[in-house]
Design brief:
The complex is a heterodimer of chains A (673) and B (216).
Chain A lengths: L2 H4 L7 E5 H11 L4 E4 L6 H13 L4 E4 L3 H13 L4 E6 L2 H4 L1 H10 L5 E7 L15 H5 L3 E2 L4 H18 L3 E6 H4 L1 E6 L16 H4 L3 H19 L2 H7 L1 E3 L7 E7 H14 L5 E4 L1 E3 L3 H10 L2 E7 L5 H12 L8 E3 L12 H12 L10 H10 L17 H19 L2 E5 L24 H12 L4 E8 H18 L3 E7 L35 H6 L8 E4 L4 H13 L3 E7 L3 H15 L6 E6 L8 H6 L4 E5 L5 E5 L12 H5 L5 E6 L1 H5 L1
Helix pairs in contact in A: 2-3, 2-8, 4-6, 13-16, 18-22, 19-20
Chain B lengths: L1 E11 L4 H14 L3 E8 L9 E11 L26 E4 L2 H6 L9 E5 L6 H4 L11 H11 L2 E5 L1 H9 L5 H12 L6 H12 L4 H10 L5
Parallel strand pairs in B: 1-4, 4-5, 5-6
Antiparallel strand pairs in B: 1-3, 2-3
Helix pairs in contact in B: 1-7, 5-6, 6-8, 7-8
Classes of the chains: A alpha/beta (673), B alpha/beta (216).
Chain lengths: 673, 216
Amino acid sequence: MKLTELFQDAPNKKLLLSGNDAFARGIFEAGVRFAANYPGTPLSEVGDNLKYLSETRDDFTFDYSLNEKVALESCIGASWSGVRSIAMFKHLGLNVAADPLHSFPYSGVKGGMIILCGGDPGILSSTNAQDNRLYSLHSKIPIIEPGTVQECKDFIRDGLRLSELYELPVYVHVTTRICHSHGIVTLGDVKEPKIEGYFEKDADRYINTLKRALKNQEKLHEKITRIAKNKKLFYQFNRIRAENQAKNTTGIITSGISYSYVIQACQKLGIKSPILKLGFLFPINREEICEFANQNHLSKLLVVEESESFIETFIKSVFCNYCEVKRDLEIHGKDSLPSIGELNTDIILKFLVDHFEHENPLIMGQLSRKEKILEEIIPGLPVREPTFCPGCQYRPVFYALKEITKSFMKKEDLVFIFAGDIGCYTLSEAYPYQLLDWVTCMGAGLGIANGMAHVIGKKQKLIAYIGDSTFLHSGIPALLNAIKNNIDLTLILFNNYWTSMTGQQEHPGTPRKYITRFGSKSKTDVKELDIIKFLQNIGLERDNLEVTGAYNISHLKRLFQSILEKDGTRVIVINEECALKKKRRLREEKAALDQVQNNYTYYTITDTCTKCNVCIEKFGCPAINVSIMENSESDYFIDEAMCIPEICPGVCKSLCKNNSILKTIINPHLEES
Amino acid sequence: MGDIYNVLVVGVGGQGVILMGNILRAYGLKSRFIQNVVGTETRGVSQREGSVSATARYLIDSRIYTLEHGFETEDLISPLIPTNDAHLVLGLEPLETLRNIRYISEQTVVVLNTHAHYPKNVIFGSGAEQEYPSIGEIVDILDQLARRTISLDFHKLSKVKLNNSVYANSILLGVGAKEFREIFFKDLMISTLKEQFGEKSENLNAFAIGYNLIGY
């Protein structure tokens, strides 16, 4: 999606957007003044879109915040000053921001405010599948959930109106599948944001302590009760699809992406059940739920939702404690639907087949033949393990670390413990390095190592990893704590200048000169944080801080050797830009300057190769590959399309004992002459 | 009213699966006979060297192509294809095509690039006990299950015809488009590719090579 197209002022135009594009468009249309984000899949691309918007318009500000707590608090500040704001991050980010989340709703908001959070029920790119809808039970904020790409855009506008109507933040719950869905979206009118905010003091409202807090809590509860009874809201956010008016009908309540699977499964089975698609998940309007059951003469109700039984629990309480007519309504959901993993049409198809006593269309036809293949062949297929990018600056570091720790283990009978964190370096878990012992949450590598260091014996040595962005996000307190106690630990700080794993977003330590700015809006006032200077001033012993590049393996080995022999808290900073980002950045810069490339460098494998496998088996750069020829012989080669000689100075060449990797430099201008 | 038509693209991260999905969905928005289009792709940590897939689902005007059911625009929301329901599978890699066999049935046409991308852990390392199935075996299974399978080393073809293997996907797309030429109009597809790759891209030639590869 071209960004100029995404943010054009063209009402009623139809565009093909992803869920994340649609959120950004919705934020633009709704006249939001301030948005803040810490990148995280599945929502990363929303921020990337908004960065562009922020740099091309004076009436919108977007901030890549240091972490989710700062992002949420910034948005509270903007909202209390009377402008519209949106905080967004992945589901796990809400844990980091949970502290303000549980208190500021007592004070409420002034300008409309949305918290947009992307859940990951299939754990496709996270460390857990927590169901953030449950936060509503203790934070008491309304939840809405879009179910189509169009709704991703529209719910931002409608959610902000709801937020302003009740002076409460609104939580927009989405999941990976919606964020990464593509669909046709009809654009709407663009509302101009209110440019300047003004904070009006109100001690009773904002100083949330003691008696005042108690009063504010009462206000919050009263607002939620009012929302639950608002019939207009119920029909604004929820959709009912009902044709069947027969007695003793089975109805379905669902929400979000599950709705699309329900529709698909009903089509396949030819079932025309009344379906209530909830867009408003909390608080539930009890009268209207009863009305749905009554009007459609339901005798049975099926609740289809991913993760926990959130909707089901509320629905059951409606019919158990509240609804006079339908006390005997049969309700099913998580008694047979899985709480673990994502749902899909197949799962719902089976669920509906059971409840409608319908013939399963999947069992018919050729599936029996296919089932055999599915059961016997597919599970045994080789798995593709993810790895570092070709030319990645982490690969030589882990290669050197593996060699050195192996020699230490042999000589001194030591066992190394590798404390992992969130970032690309979790891939060190995979073959051929396997230098990782845990991954829990942001900052927990160092945090957990802190306690372990106090209690383990001399035979075990701790090495912790952290990236620059994760370090700034939540690693600093754990490191300061380690230094305070001078615990025995070596921290490898991978300073690659970007929040790389989520798409190379900038962070406070990113060199300003490397950041591309769109548009004319000047951002020169943004300061750069020097991580090395910071580390020099937090009480580390002078000899216990080393800074190095990433591509010289023999240098890295010497450095690891000497630092691992020392005592106390030690930090090695690997100062090397993310290779993938650097490649793209240099290409962009070159294109912008219209520069002609002078030299082309190639790495090739010559016939002298003895197939010792060091470059593939131990180093494992994906650019080095093997093709199996027709006579079953293997042929080693370097894939030109993957190799990035402009960034990586040929680490594979330095590792090749037979000098079989050849570096060729071609100057096209010389050749021509 | 229209009929739902499903395209599945499968391959290895970095092969161009996501781009192919984008092109197919962009085509869907352009064609006046396609009333609605949805789709998705797998992302996240699986990208680098991992298994990747993308979908494009169209609601097609029944006048140009008739499948079994009559649907409304709002019936096509789910970005995922149900089991058995792919009409066209573009297999950029044999192992990944086999892995997605669940979606292939008697109504499916498979266009397969037989050029294998071997997982490293199978050649050496942690998965060394696992075997990459033979290409013949994979083609056999596809032949048994699909309506029609067109398998070819598109890498080699691209290298021979255009001097570089990077155009393999565009040739393969051409073959797939020809198979369903009632849906994929040649000129409209080429103008979609132009928007993606530029006016003079070799990909346009590659697509034409694929389109003219099999005569009917």
